[in-house]
């Protein structure tokens, strides 16, 4: 722990989610932060260009933020920061937070490293904006309340009769259950692991330790997109050191019995869960889609907790596993413009996420629309980028919201609204300049579906790609096989499109993102947000048809979409 002169520090008594004492300069923001795509795991510098702390270092500071948001991989990034000595001295939230806190729990369990994590009331949190230095200590009367009941089977999973990996995983599950004030654990039907994304040596070491300790999944387990196309990284020319490490990380999870699906869109697989099933999915967009669109039940599980649940088959009865936590606490009335195209859904999801940063919203006003599965995918991914909420309801569209009354937690919920001008502001934020030269069109964040590949082929048919523009899609292995069989792959390849399997745009390496490229165009609200920080490039946003136009002309859109300009 970094030491500081305490002579000028004020003392903050706080409820400790992770015990410890810390002292240092306060780094405050009233905006939640996703550590994945928001903080460089090697340096501790905030790289999210849309965040108030952009360019600042969190290392050694008392970082005061409302909570985490966005990617479930934030836990892995924080653990890497702790290992690198670039973590904050302590964390202060104004609400209970699971993703970042779990990263500290795993660092303690696996490596004996820790930082204190605390939560204070919103009023005391807001006062930190005017505080220069803080000494963080535990409230004297903040004793933990033991509420968790363990079954004989749960105790067995802690015993020497099971592999060490299972014991460690069960300890982590139980600690998270305590953090969530869960009364018991439940059986899980399937798991989707997001922790297979390479964030640094610690993420690989964690997985290889579990595999070496006899870890074996107890339930069907799929794997998220990894950081490399396992079968083609050599011909793609990605960094061999990082590519080997990323591939080895995926292999470690496969050795534990997980299926090498390597997709950030597990809802596109035949194994997607049914309505009402208790599952444990990580990856922020997948969690939101599972809860909201499929009606399955999962919390927004952090990286590392996902594999722990897979190894034990047990998870805390908390969050969206409980009926009462699936109800909306806010209504957002949408004034839907006429003639919308596919760009409407990510813009709307992004905006609604900012209005509901940590609360489940019910969205009204879209009853006359007929969003496709891919529209809802794009909406959910953008929503999960700006909100920490694990789900949403769209009245008349999603399964638990046939009416507003059935989706709402009570009849007198507060109402907010979204207008075309609000969506125009989001579009302008993604597109501060117009008509720029495009070097790369990046599609597939989350992974492109079979239907999207089919639609893209139709848009490209009979046209010629600009020789100076790269058009690259990231897809899952299963989608890739389907488009090859259907002839779509050959059609897109003839146009000049290239494909990356296993990885997606939040994980790809150079030269898939060409080093000399200056500007990337995407149809993903998620990548429009994370892309600048992850790639170091300018990123612009447009509808799929406009992305094809840019691939042909070499220029980004010169105006907003027609539906937004009216």
Number of helices: 20
Indicate the low-confidence ranges by residue numbers. Answer: 1-6
Question: CATH fold name of the largest domain, please?
Answer: Aconitase, domain 3
User: Which CATH C-level class of the largest domain is it?
Assistant: Alpha Beta
Q: Shape from CA axes? A: globular
> Which structural class do you get from the secondary structure elements?
alpha/beta
Describe the overall structure.
- This protein has 566 residues and is α/β, with parallel strands linked by helices.
- It folds into 4 domains: 10-138, 3-Layer(bba) Sandwich (Glucose Oxidase, domain 1), CATH 3.50.30; 152-322, Aconitase, domain 3, CATH 3.30.499; 327-428, no CATH class; 431-565, Aconitase, domain 3 (2-Layer Sandwich), CATH 3.30.499.
- The protein is 35% helix and 15% strand.
- It contains 20 helices and 20 strands.
- It has helices at 74-84, 99-111, 122-127, 152-156, 164-179, 201-212, 233-236, 240-255, 284-294, 305-312, 344-355, 373-386, 404-407, 420-430, 450-460, 477-486, 488-495, 525-535, 544-553, 562-565; strands at residues 10-18, 22-28, 62-64, 90-93, 117-119, 133-138, 185-187, 191-193, 221-223, 280-281, 314-316, 330-334, 361-364, 393-394, 415-418, 440-443, 470-475, 497-501, 519-522, 538-541.
- The strands form 5 sheets. The protein has a 6-stranded mixed barrel with strand order 1-5-4-3-2-6. Strands 18-17-16-19-20 form a 5-stranded parallel β-sheet, with helices on both faces.
- The N and C termini lie far apart (56 Å).
- Mean pLDDT is 95; it is low at 1-6.
């Amino acid at each position: 722990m970094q030491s500081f002169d305490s002579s000028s520090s004020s003392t903050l008594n706080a409820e400790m989610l992770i015990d410890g004492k810390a002292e240092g300069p306060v780094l405050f923001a009233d905006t939640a932060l996703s550590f994945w795509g928001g903080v460089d795991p090697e340096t501790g510098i905030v790289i999210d260009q849309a965040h108030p702390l952009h360019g600042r270092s969190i290392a050694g500071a008392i970082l005061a933020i409302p909570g985490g948001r966005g990617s479930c991989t934030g836990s892995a990034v924080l653990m890497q920061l702790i290992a690198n000595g670039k973590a904050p001295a302590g964390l202060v939230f104004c609400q209970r937070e699971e993703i970042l806190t779990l990263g500290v729990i795993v660092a303690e369990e696996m490596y004996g490293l820790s930082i204190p994590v605390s939560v204070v009331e919103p009023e005391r949190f807001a006062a930190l904006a005017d505080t220069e230095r803080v000494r963080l200590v535990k409230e004297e009367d903040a004793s933990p309340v033991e509420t968790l009941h363990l079954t004989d089977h749960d105790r067995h999973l802690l015993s020497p009769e099971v592999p060490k990996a299972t014991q460690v995983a069960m300890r982590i599950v139980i600690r998270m259950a305590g953090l969530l004030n869960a009364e018991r654990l439940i059986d899980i039907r399937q798991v989707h692991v997001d922790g297979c994304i390479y964030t640094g040596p610690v993420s690989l070491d964690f997985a290889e330790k579990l595999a070496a300790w006899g870890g074996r999944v107890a339930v069907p387990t799929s794997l998220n997109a990894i950081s490399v196309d396992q079968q083609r990284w050599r011909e793609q020319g990605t960094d061999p050191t990082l590519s080997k490490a990323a591939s080895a990380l995926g292999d470690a999870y496969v050795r534990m019995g997980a299926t090498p699906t390597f997709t950030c869109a597990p809802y596109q697989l035949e194994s997607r869960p049914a309505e009402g099933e208790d599952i444990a999915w990580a990856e922020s967009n997948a969690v939101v889609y599972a809860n909201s669109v499929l009606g399955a039940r999962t919390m927004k599980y952090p990286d590392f907790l996902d594999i722990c649940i897979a190894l034990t088959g047990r998870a805390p009865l908390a969050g969206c596993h409980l009926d009462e936590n699936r109800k909306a606490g806010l209504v957002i009335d949408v004034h839907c413009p006429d003639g919308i195209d596919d760009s409407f859904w990510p813009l709307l999801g992004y905006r609604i996420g900012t209005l509901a940063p940590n609360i489940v919203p019910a969205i009204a006003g879209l009853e006359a629309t007929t969003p496709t599965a891919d529209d809802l995918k794009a909406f959910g991914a953008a929503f999960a980028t700006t909100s920490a909420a694990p789900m949403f309801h769209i009245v008349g569209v999603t399964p638990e919201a046939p009416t507003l009354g059935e989706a709402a937690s009570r009849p007198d919920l507060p109402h907010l609204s979204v207008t075309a001008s609000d969506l125009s502001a989001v579009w302008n934020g993604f597109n501060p300049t117009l008509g720029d030269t495009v070097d790369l069109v990046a599609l597939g964040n989350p992974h492109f579906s079979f239907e999207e590949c089919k639609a893209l082929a139709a848009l490209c048919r009979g046209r010629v790609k600009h020789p100076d523009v790269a058009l690259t899609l990231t897809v899952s292995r299963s989608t890739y096989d389907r488009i090859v069989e259907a002839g779509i792959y050959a059609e897109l390849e003839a146009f000049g499109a290239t494909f990356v399997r296993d990885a997606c745009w939040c994980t790809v390496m150079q030269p898939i993102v060409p080093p000399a490229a200056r500007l990337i165009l995407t149809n993903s609200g998620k990548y429009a947000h994370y892309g600048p920080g992850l790639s170091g490039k300018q990123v612009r946003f447009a509808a799929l048809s406009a992305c094809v136009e840019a691939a042909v002309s070499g220029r980004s859109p010169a105006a907003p979409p027609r539906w937004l300009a009216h």
